[in-house]
Amino acid sequence: xxxxxxxxxxxxxxxxxxxxxxxxxxxxxxxxxxxxxxxxxxxxxxxxxxxxxxxxxxxxxxxxxxxxxxxxxxxxxxxxxxxxxxxxxxxxxxxxxxxxxxxxxxxxxxxxxxxxxxxxxxxxxxxxxxxxxxxxxxxxxxxxxxxxxxxxxxxxxxxxxxxxxxxxxxxxxxxxxxxxxxxxxxxxxxxxxxxxxxxxxxxxxxxxxxxxxxxxxxxxxxxxxxxxxxxxxxxxxxxxxxxxxxxxxxxxxxxxxxxxxxxxxxxxxxxxxxxxxxxxxxxxxxxxxxxxxxxxxxxxxxxxxxxxxxxxxxxxxxxxxxxxxxxxxxxxxxxxxx
Amino acid sequence: xxxxxxxxxxxxxxxxxxxxxxxxxxxxxxxxxxxxxxxxxxxxxxxxxxxxxxxxxxxxxxxxxxxxxxxxxxxxxxxxxxxxxxxxxxxxxxxxxxxxxxxxxxxxxxxxxxxxxxxxxxxxxxxxxxxxxxxxxxxxxxxxxxxxxxxxxxxxxxxxxxxxxxxxxxxxxxxxxxxxxxxxxxxxxxxxxxxxxxxxxxxxxxxxxxxxxxxxxxxxxxxxxxxxxxxxxxxxxxxxxxxxxxxxxxxxxxxxxxxxxxxxxxxxxxxxxxxxxxxxxxxxxxxxxxxxxxxxxxxxxxxxxxxxxxxxxxxxxxxxxxxxxxxxxxxxxxxxxx
Amino acid sequence: xxxxxxxxxxxxxxxxxxxxxxxxxxxxxxxxxxxxxxxxxxxxxxxxxxxxxxxxxxxxxxxxxxxxxxxxxxxxxxxxxxxxxxxxxxxxxxxxxxxxxxxxxxxxxxxxxxxxxxxxxxxxxxxxxxxxxxxxxxxxxxxxxxxxxxxxxxxxxxxxxxxxxxxxxxxxxxxxxxxxxxxxxxxxxxxxxxxxxxxxxxxxxxxxxxxxxxxxxxxxxxxxxxxxxxxxxxxxxxxxxxxxxxxxxxxxxxxxxxxxxxxxxxxxxxxxxxxxxxxxxxxxxxxxxxxxxxxxxxxxxxxxxxxxxxxxxxxxxxxxxxxxxxxxxxxxxxxxxx
Amino acid sequence: xxxxxxxxxxxxxxxxxxxxxxxxxxxxxxxxxxxxxxxxxxxxxxxxxxxxxxxxxxxxxxxxxxxxxxxxxxxxxxxxxxxxxxxxxxxxxxxxxxxxxxxxxxxxxxxxxxxxxxxxxxxxxxxxxxxxxxxxxxxxxxxxxxxxxxxxxxxxxxxxxxxxxxxxxxxxxxxxxxxxxxxxxxxxxxxxxxxxxxxxxxxxxxxxxxxxxxxxxxxxxxxxxxxxxxxxxxxxxxxxxxxxxxxxxxxxxxxxxxxxxxxxxxxxxxxxxxxxxxxxxxxxxxxxxxxxxxxxxxxxxxxxxxxxxxxxxxxxxxxxxxxxxxxxxxxxxxxxxx
Lengths: 338, 338, 338, 338
Prior knowledge:
Four copies of one chain form a homotetramer.
Chain A: E1 2-5, H1 11-23, E2 27-32, E3 37-42, H2 49-53, E4 58-62, E5 82-85, E6 88-90, E7 96-100, H3 107-119, E8 124-126, H4 143-156, E9 160-164, H5 168-175, E10 180-183, H6 191-197, E11 204-207, H7 214-226, E12 232-236, H8 254-261, E13 266-268, H9 270-274, H10 280-290, E14 294-298, H11 316-335
Parallel strand pairs in A: 7-8, 7-14, 8-9, 9-10, 10-11, 11-12, 12-13, 13-14
Antiparallel strand pairs in A: 1-3, 1-4, 2-3, 5-6
Helix pairs in contact in A: 3-4, 6-7, 10-11
Protein name (chains A, B, C, D): 3-deoxy-7-phosphoheptulonate synthase
Domain DAHP synthetase I/KDSA (chains A, B, C, D): 83-328
GO biological process, one term (chains A, B, C, D): aromatic amino acid family biosynthetic process
C-alpha cells in the first residue's frame, strides 16, 4: 500500500498512521522524495483502506499488490514527464531522441557529433566516459576528464548529456556534469548504486538487465524512487536469448507492458537491441510504433573507426535519415487510435 | 552452389554438369519445382564458377555458402510474391492481412467472422481445424468436416483460407480445401511433413519454432523448396525466453534479418507473439514498421467465449481498428526511405 | 481425476460412473491400455471423491490436479519398471545402459559396436536409421533396410534396439524390428506421432523437447499413455539456452524433479546434453548421481569417421571406461540414503 | 600472450620487453600480483614467441588466444589450490564443503549452525550480512555488526567465513573479518568491485552471472587476477532459462568445461542451482561427480523460519546426511579413472 502524506503533517499524525499500518501487519518504509512524502506498506494482510484513509495527515492512499509500488501505474495514473530544462522533456507528449557514440573519444569527435545533433535538432547526446567491458584489457573510457570536456561542449550548444555511472563513488563526482545518469544493463541490480542514485536530484535512466525480467526492471526503479528520486526513465535494450543472428533480442513486447504497469517514461535502444547497423532503423521505428517515449541510439562520424560498438553505430547520413523517419512515425502514432 | 538448368536441357548435358560438380567434391541434389529445375551442390571445396558456368545447359549459377541455398537472397535477389488468385497476393508491394479465430468452432462463428472480414476488405482468413494441444484432453479441432464447411463458406465470399496441417497424411486430405498450408511452431522441424509439403502446389506458411533459430527456420523452408514447392511464407510468432510477463517474446529483430537473408515473404503473428489482447495492436503495428509483408492475428466475435486462445484474441471492434491502423502504418512505411 | 475401473465392469456401471463424473462438471476421457481401463476426468470443479468412489465398478480413484494425469506419481506411487524380455529391464532397481552410434552406417560398423556391447555386458543398443537433420541435404539415415539388418544382428546377440521413429507411417513399418521406439527432441510435441505410439505394445522413450519444459514432457507422455500404451521412458537430453560453450545445457535438475512427479523411468543422454566427447563421462556419472534410471550415449569405433555427431561420440576405450564407472557410481548410489 | 617476469628484473630489461611486445602490435598491461609479475599482451598479430622469449628478464612466455589470459589453463597447467590457513584448503586434492544460512540473523542462530558444522567437521561457513534483494523493502542483512559477531564466533571455533561483498566501499570495511569474499550473481560484471578485489590478499569466490556465459565468468576472474589477486574460486549456481519447475537451471556442464579452461578451483551451489530443498542432495552429489572441487549450500536449524531462501535450505538432519554422502561420493570419484 502507498500512503501519500500531507505536506504539513505533524510528527504525531505520522506516528499514528505508522502505528495503524503496522497494527494491520504491514511493514512500513518511509519514503521522502524531492517531490513528496510517502509511507510504503508491504505485507499480505487484508486491510480496509477507507478506514485507514480517514486518519488525519493522509493525502491519498492506494492498494498496490505488485512487488514494486511507487513506480506502479495502479497508483499514479498520469504518466511522468521529466523536464530537463531548456525545453527538453522526456515522457508522453513528445518523442525523445538521444544519439551519440558508444564512447567519448576526443574533442574533435564530440565537435562533429554535436554539430550533427544541432543540425538535426536533437537535444540529447549519449556517450560513455566510464565503460563496462567484459575484458579488463579493453578500453575503459576517458573518465572524468572526458566528462568535463563533454559537459563544457554540450552546455555551449544547448545539448543535454546522458552517460553511464558505474559505481557509487562516481555519483557525486559526476553529478554536476551530467543531465541523465544512465545505469547500464550489467548494473540494473547493483542495488548500492541504485540506492545512491536515490539521493540525487537528476534523472536516472535504468537499462533492463541482460537477462532481467520486466518485473525486476520495475523493482530496480523502485529502489531509486524509494531512495528519494522520482526522476526515472526505463530503457528496453534487448535481452539475452539463444538466438545468435542478432547481438541481443530486442523485446518490444516490454514497451506496451511497461507503459501499462508504470507511469515512468519508456525508451528503446535499438543499437544494442539488435547490434547490427543495417537493422537499427527498422527496429527504432518499430520501437516507436510499439509505444516508446523515446529512442536512444549510437551514432559516430566514422562508425568503422569507433573505439567500441562500431558494428551497430550509424553514420551521420543514416542517423539524419533515422531522425527524420522517427518523427514521421511518431506523428502518425499520435494520430492513430490504439 | 545453385545451378539453374535450362528448360530444354538434354539428359547428357545434365549428366555432364553433375559429373563436373561431383568432381569438384560437391554433393549434388537435383531439385525440380513447379517453376524450374536446379542442381544444389553442397560442399566445402573451392570451385571456379565461371568455368563451370560455361557448360551447356546452365541458365544461371551462384555460390551460396549458407546451410540453406534456394531460399537465400544471395541467389535470388528479387523478392518472391505469391499470387493466391482473385487478386490476393502475399509479398512485397502490399500488406497482407490475415485474421480469424484460433479454432474453427461452428458455422455461425464463421459466418460472423467472415462478414467482419468482408466488411473490412480482408481477403485471408486463418482458423484451425486440427489443433496441436499440449494436453491430450484438450479440444483438438473439428477436423475435415470443419475444413470442408470452412472452404465452402470462404469460397462463397472470395476469402482465402490459411489453416494448419499437422501430419503427412493430412496433406492430401486437406489439399483441395486449403489456400495456404500452415506449419505450426511445434512442427517447424517435422521434416517428413516439410518433405510432403514439397510435393504440393499450394503456398506453405512456416512458423518459426518455439525456440527455433532464424537459420533453422530458413533450413526448414529449404526442405519444402528442395522438395519441389517454391511457394513459401515465413512467420515470426515469438520465441520462448525467461520472460513470463508475455506468452512469448516476439522477436521483431527477425523481420529485417529474414528480409535480407531470404527472398521469401515474412509475416508477423502478434497474437502468439505477445499473447495478451491489449497489446496485440502495438505489436502488430511495430511488426509492419520492422518490415513485415503481412500480419496474421486472432479475431473472434466474443473472445471470452472462444474455444482456445481467447486471452490473445481481438473482438471485431478492436480488429477493425487494427486493420485501419495497419494500412495507415504500411502507407507511411512505403513513403519512408529506410 | 483418475478412476481405474474393475476388469469385469458392466457397460451400465461404466455409463453410470461417467454420468456422475460429468454431472460434477468434469470432462471424461476413456482410456484403455494393454494393462487396465481408466476414466480420466478433467475439470476445475470440486468433487467429493469418497462418495464417487463408492459407485460399483471402481477399483481406485485419485485426484490429480496436474495437466498430466496417468503419468503422475500422485496417482501411481510405485515406479514403473519396463521388462523388455531376456532379462533386460528399464526402471528402478537397475541402471540401464544404452550405447551405440548416432547413425547406423553399415554391417561392419554394427558388428564392431555390438561386439563392444557384448564384451561389456550392455544389452541395449541405440542407433538411428531415420535421422532428423536440419538441412535437407544432409545424410538422412539408411531407412528400413538398415533397421532390418540392425534387428537381425541384434537378435543374434541378445541385444535390444532403441531407435528413432519420425512419423506416423513408420510406426507400423518399424514395429517388428524395434524394442524401444525413440521420439526425438524435435518430435516431443508431434502429437499425431504420440497418438500413433499410444496404439503399440512396445516401450516408447520420449526425449525432452529442445526447449521443452518438464511439464510439456510429462504431457507428451500423457498422450501416449492415454492412447493406450503405458510403456514409457522419459529422457533428459539438454535444453537450448544462451550458453554456447556446450551444444546444449544438460538440465540434471530435471532428473529429481521428474522422479518425483512421475512413476515413469528417467534416463539421461549426456552425449547430446553437452555435445563434447571429453565431457560425456563426467556428465553421465553426474546423471546417475542425480538419480537417473539409465544412461544413453553415443559410441563408435572411430568417432572421427562417424556419419554424424562424431564430436560427441566416445570411442570403445572411453566407452568401456564409462560403463565400468557408471556401475561403480550406481552401486554407491544404491548404498547412500538420500 | 602472457610473459612472467623474473623477480629480479631490471627496469631497463622490463622496458625493453615492453617495447618489443608493442612493436609486435600488442597492447601491454603490467600485472603485479602478490605472487609474481607479468606482462599481458593483447592483440591479433602473429608473433614468434621463441625469439621474444630470449629477451633477458623473462621467466616464462605463453600464447593464450582466449579473451581471458592469466586464469587460463593453457598457461598455468597445474590447478590452483588456495590455502586459507589452519588446514583449510580449496582446490584439487580435497572436497571443500561450505554450509550456512542465506542470511546471518542472530547470535543464537550462528551458535547452532556453527555447532552443526563442528559436529560434522565442516570448516567453512557461508552466511550473508549484506543481502542483494530485488525489492528495496526486503530484509537487507545485519551489515557490519553482524559480520563482526560472525567473525568473533567463527574464529573461536576454527571456522572460516565466506560472505558476500556488494560494493567497493565494503571491501576495506569487511577485509579483516572475512576469509573468502563472495561476489554474487548480480555483481559478476560489477567491474569496479572486481577491480577493488584485485587489491586485497584474500580469496574471492565469483558466482556465475544470472545469465552469464562461462567465458564471461572467466573474464570476470581475469579482472581480479589482473588487479593483483590470484586467489580465486569460481562458482556455478544455476542460470536463468525458460524452465519454471526449478528456481534456476544448474548448469553442471560448466564444471568439466571450466576445469579444463582454467586452473582455478570450481565449486557448485546446488541450493540456488535448483532452489528446492528436496532436490539439493542429488544435485550436490551430481556436482561432485561432474568434477567440482567443492559444494556450497544453505543450511539452517529451522529452514521454515529462515529470514530468506527457506524453501531451498536444508535442516541439520538433511545437512548431516548430505555431508556424509558428499564425502562418500568424492572418495569414489578419487578412485575412478575419468
